[in-house]
Each structure stands twice: as structure tokens, then as C-alpha cells.
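Quick entry, no commentary yet.
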Amino acid sequence: MNGPIAATKADDELRERIVKHEWDQFQQVDNEGGRANCQGNWPTFHHMRFSQFSVWPHDLLASYADDLDAADRAGRNLLTEKYGRMMESTAPEVYRRDIAPYMPRLGLERQERQERIIRQQVAWAKDFRERYPRLGQEMRILRTADDTAQDTSFETYLRGELSTYSPKTLGLYETLVLVLATQRRNLTEETLLATVRLAGYGNLEEAEAAQKDPLSQD
């Protein structure tokens, strides 16, 4: 892995299948207070999720696709579990009472591995936001400590997502993060580059220049 993941037709077809599978599970997520607006916004969901998977290698894509299939067979919904786990931070009383008893338990070793990944990715996201403040203002708030009932941080979202991965998928994702860190690459930067390219920009600098200045009063 010496540079950005090369897109192949087969891998892009797999990415499309994963995003559609996630969308189907997303439609079944029950939200307190009714259906969320984002559950009806397929274009944005597709754009954001396909961008994330654009930087994943084939073996990781295939493993996560298997996770989604296995969840269907077991009567699980990985999107429900992801958003449910986020509520441990954003709605802790509801989480303890109504959600935690039904979640698969994660052992201490698993949690420690996830937290190592999270620390690296939070550092990458912080670095990206400092270098691209205009794009950064469009991202989630960064840290779990800043979560509110209305705003879920990047850290909390990532923790929820990693918690849904099978042991195989987590191991492959962990390898991706370690390889990128060793090569002094930034996963947030590469994901956002894929995001802005799908939006029609040539590179991050062009996209950054097109955004509103976060210090502007307009």
C-alpha cells in the first residue's frame, strides 16, 4: 500500500453494494422522536459513505460486506447498533436503560484496540482541520467530550462504527490505519479528497477556496 487506493470497476461495484446495503439497514433504524431527515437523503448518504469506502482496500471491503450479510442472517442491524452505541455518550440514561442490555458485549482487549485506532484518527482529523479550516467547519465536532443530545462528535461516531465490525474487519481496518500512519499519510485527508472529488473539485485546495471563510460575518 504505497499510495491512494486505486479504483477498479470491481471494487467500485462492491463499494456501491455496501452503500446500498447500509442504506437498506439505515431505513430500519428507529429514532426517538420519529424518522430522521437524513434517512430520506440518499444522495448525501451515498456521497459520504462511498467516499469513506473509496480509501478501503479490497480485502477490507469484502470483509465488511460479509459483516452486513451476516448481520441480516442473524437478524441484526449494524446501523441500528452503530447509532445505538453513540447514545452511550449523547443520551447516557436512555442508553443504559433501553439499549445497552441488547448490545453485543465488547471485551476489554477489543475496546483497547478500538481506542488506539480512535486516538490516531482523532489526531488525523485535528491535523486536517488545522490545515483546511473551511472544509473543517463542515465536519462533525471532534471529541466525545463535546457531545450534546443534538451533536455527535467524530470520535463518538467512529467508536460506534468500529464497534459494529467483526473481528476480521476490525483487524483489517487496524492494519489500514497502521500502514497509513507508518507512511505518514492521513486517512481523514484521503477520505475528504475522495469526498470533494465526487463533488466535482479537482483537489482539496480548490474545495477549500470555494468554502465560506469560518471567520466571516456574512
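second:
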Amino acid sequence: MNSAMHTLQAAAVAALTEHPVLANALTGVYDGPPPRAAFPYVAINDGIASDWSTKTDAGREVRLALTVWDDGESATRLSNLMSHVEDAVLAIPRDLPDWRIASLVFVRSMVVRDPAGPWAGLIEYRVRLLAI
């Protein structure tokens, strides 16, 4: 059985790269910040997984965190991209290889900027999965 986190991250990458707006707007979707990537891009952060099993089924609760990176003059483009990322994540199919998403809930988002660097928009979800 594939790990829930690996399966969920693969589904998130597929959802982001297949999204009609993001496919044209992003330069890539990466596992962590890539060296020398062109902006804008999405980095899937290392997730946290915990047990969410029932008496009869294995389960995991995964924190899926995505960071949208952009070097625009303002946060306008970043905010627009973050909205599309949210749409893509919410459209992830509930039936995945070896796992079924029982719930996918938005937890938080925030936008920060280093004065000498790019904008970073974090979006975090709590995803509960059951093994099938």
C-alpha cells in the first residue's frame, strides 16, 4: 500500500498541473523550493501525517501545505494564483490509489514577503484518508 502522504501529494501535483489556468501560469510544481526556478511556481511542503484509523480500517490525517512563490511587484497575481490553487486542490478526486479521501478541509492561508525577495503564499489543508 502506498503511503497516504505520497499518494495525496501525487494527486495534488496532478490537480495543479492539469488545472487550465495554473497549467499556463506556473513554471512548475515542485517537492520543496527548487534551485533557480523561474517564478511563479508552487512548492509542496513536507507534510505531517498522523494516525486516523478506525477499528476496522487504516487511516491517516495529512496536513497538505502548498506555497505559491511569485516575484511580482504586488501580491495581486499571487492572490489570484492562490485562488486557483484552492480550486485545484478542492477538485482532487476522492478515490485515489489505495486510499479514499474522507474529508478535505481548508485550514489556513497567509501571504508573506521578504523585503528583498519574492512573495510566498501558504495554503494549508487537513486531509483525512482511509485505506481501501
